[in-house]
């Protein structure tokens, strides 16, 4: 089955690096025009150039998802410049590695504001427009840490558990009005968030404990993201999909 996204407009938050950068490229390769959002506009400009060179279309926009007042104007601008958003990849996220005994209030607020609050209000702004048009795909990027105890990122896991519950709630409220809301729970994927860690003794030990003793690459999620973004996934709503090489099941 060859899934194409021609004519669709996607918004990817956190498109300036790692998974978001790859999600944006994969959607563009499948024919979608992609709005690229994050704080680091220079990186988004570079990604736009790469996408355009490959024959795609992209629109970079600076957005800090923790600043809720900035979200609505940014979404409005994307739709004005690029057309109605059909697909939202709600991907911006941050992590602080600590044990529960060491987290500070600032650590918690930093993660909660970006991962849960930011995700909610981006989905709300885009979702309202999708609901008015009676169609849309929202894909929230949670984490294996939302459903499995992963030592050292416990409070991060709390924020991602919130994203899982948000996904289910939105799927129930919005699914009957044509907007499918699903979540992907990635396992360990090599990105800026963790790259340095895999070279350390602790990182190597962790890899040795994984079911298939390997860390994924962002492109390992290409098929899943394109499928969930497409019309082919019309019967999939409220799904919490692990893409973790078997980590949550182990
Ligand atoms: N890598 C993994 O193993 C893994 C596993 C499970 C889940 N995840 C999740 O996957 C998503 C992407 O992570 P990644 O591994 O690709 O990490 P990453 O390379 O560090 O990328 C994080 C992205 O989030 C953006 N971001 C952070 N704070 C933001 C804010 N306030 N407003 C807007 N954008 C913001 C960053 O852009 P700017 O700095 O330019 O704003 C960046 O583009 C996250 O939600 C993460 O929790 C990752």
How would you describe the overall organization of this protein?
Strand 1 (about 10-15), helix 1 (about 20-30) and strand 2 form a beta-alpha-beta unit. The model has no long low-confidence stretch (mean pLDDT about 95). Helix 3 (about 70-80) runs parallel beside helix 4 and helix 4 packs parallel to helix 5. This protein is an alpha/beta fold. The relative contact order is 0.14. It is built from 7 helices and 7 strands; from the N terminus they run βαβαβαβαβαβααβ. A 7-stranded parallel sheet has the order 3-2-1-4-5-6-7, sandwiched between helices. Helices cover about 45% and strands about 15% of the residues. It has helices at about 20-30, 40-55, 70-80, 105-135, 155-175, 200-210, 220-230; strands at about 10-15, 35-40, 55-60, 85-90, 135-140, 180-185, 240-245. The protein is globular. The protein starts with 8 loop residues before the first strand and ends in a 7-residue tail after the last strand. The protein has one domain (about 10-245): 3-Layer(aba) Sandwich (Rossmann fold), CATH 3.40.50.720. NADP nicotinamide-adenine-dinucleotide phosphate binds near residues 40, 65 and 143.
In short:
With 250 residues, the protein is of the alpha/beta class.
C-alpha-based Rg, rounded: 17 Å
Strand content: 15-25%
Roughly how many Å apart are the termini?
Answer: 31 Å
Bound molecules: NADP nicotinamide-adenine-dinucleotide phosphate
What composes the largest sheet? 7 strands, parallel
Q: Low-confidence stretches at least 5 residues in length (pLDDT < 50)?
A: none
Q: What name does the CATH topology carry?
A: Rossmann fold
């Amino acid at each position: 089955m060859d899934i194409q996204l021609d004519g669709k407009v996607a918004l990817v938050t956190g498109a300036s690096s790692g998974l978001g950068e790859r999600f944006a490229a994969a959607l563009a390769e499948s024919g979608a025009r992609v709005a690229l959002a994050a704080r680091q506009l220079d990186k988004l400009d570079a990604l736009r150039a790469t996408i355009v060179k490959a024959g795609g279309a992209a629109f970079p926009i600076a957005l800090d998802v923790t600043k809720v007042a900035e979200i609505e104007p940014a979404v409005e601008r994307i739709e004005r410049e690029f057309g109605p958003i059909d697909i939202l990849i709600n991907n911006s996220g941050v992590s602080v590695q600590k044990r529960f005994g060491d987290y500070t209030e600032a650590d918690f607020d930093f993660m909660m504001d970006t991962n849960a609050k930011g995700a909610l209000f981006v989905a709300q702004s885009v979702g309202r427009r999708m609901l008015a048009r009676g169609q849309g795909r929202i894909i929230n990027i949670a984490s294996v840490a939302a459903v499995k105890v992963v030592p050292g990122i416990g409070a991060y896991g709390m924020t991602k558990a919130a994203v899982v519950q948000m996904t289910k709630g939105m799927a129930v409220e919005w699914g009957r009005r044509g907007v499918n809301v699903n979540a992907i729970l990635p396992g360990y994927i090599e990105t800026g968030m963790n790259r340095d860690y895999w070279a350390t003794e602790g990182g190597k030990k962790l890899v040795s404990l994984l079911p298939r003793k390997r860390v994924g690459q962002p492109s390992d999620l290409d098929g899943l993201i394109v499928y969930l973004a497409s019309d082919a996934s019309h019967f999939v709503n409220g799904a919490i999909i692990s893409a973790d090489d078997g980590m949550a099941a182990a």
